[in-house]
Amino acid sequence: MVDAGDDAPDFSASLVTDDIEPFRLTDRIGDGPTVLAFFPAAFSSTCTDEMRTIRDEFDRFPDACTLLGVSTDLPHALSVYREEYDLPFGLVADPDHRAIEAYDAIADFDHYGVDVVARRSVFVIGADGTVTYRWLADEHGQEPDYAAVADAAAGAIAPN
C-alpha cells in the first residue's frame, strides 16, 4: 500500500487533454506537486460530482500543481467526458490497470459486472517524487475532503 513518505510509483498510460498522448508519471514530476485523483467510472453520478467539484475548486490548487483524474476508462470515453463536463485538467486512461495496481487503488464492481475499477482515492506527490498525502474512500459514494487535498498540494510545494 502506497502511503505518505513513500516514493511515488511510476506508471504509463494515456493522457487525455485536448489530445490523447502517451503518459508516464515520472516525466511529469519535478516542476511542482502532482495530484492523482483516482475515480471508478466516467459518467457515473458520484464520479461526475467529484470531477465537477475539483473543476469548480480548481483555482484553490497552486498554479504549479498538476492535477490529473485517473480511471480505467478508455481514452476516447474520457475525452468525451472531459469535454462534456468542461474539465480544465487532464484525465489519465488506465484500462490496463497499471496505475491502479501501482497505487493499490483497486475496487471491484461485481454488482455491476465489472471486475476491476479504480478505488476513489487521492495521492499528492511532491516535486521530489515523494507521496505527501494519501486518501482512500472507505465506502461507496464517499468523496474526498477537497479543501484538505488543495491544502496538501499547496504544502507539497518546496520553499524557494
Q: What is the helix/strand order?
A: EEEHEHEHEEEEH
Please count the beta strands (DSSP E, at least 2 residues each): 9
Beta-strand share of residues: 25-35%
Mean pLDDT: 91
Helix segment count? 4
Please name the fourth-level CATH homologous superfamily.
Glutaredoxin
As laid out across the biggest beta sheet, the strand order is 2-1-5-4-3-8-9
Estimate the helix proportion, in percent.
Answer: 10-25%
The CATH architecture assignment turns out to be 3-Layer(aba) Sandwich
Structural class: alpha+beta
Largest sheet: 7 strands, mixed
Q: Gap between N and C termini, in Å?
A: 31 Å
CATH topology: Glutaredoxin
Low-confidence stretches: none
Radius of gyration from the CA trace?
14 Å
Give the overall shape, derived from the CA principal axes.
globular
User: What's the number of domains?
Assistant: 1
| Name of the CATH class | Alpha Beta
What does this structure look like?
- This protein has 160 residues and is of the alpha+beta class.
- The chain has a single domain (31-155), classed as Glutaredoxin (3-Layer(aba) Sandwich).
- Helices cover 23% and strands 28% of the residues.
- The mean pLDDT is 91.
- Pfam families: AhpC-TSA (PF00578).
- Residues 2-158 form the Thioredoxin domain.
- Keywords: Redox-active center.
- This is Peroxiredoxin.
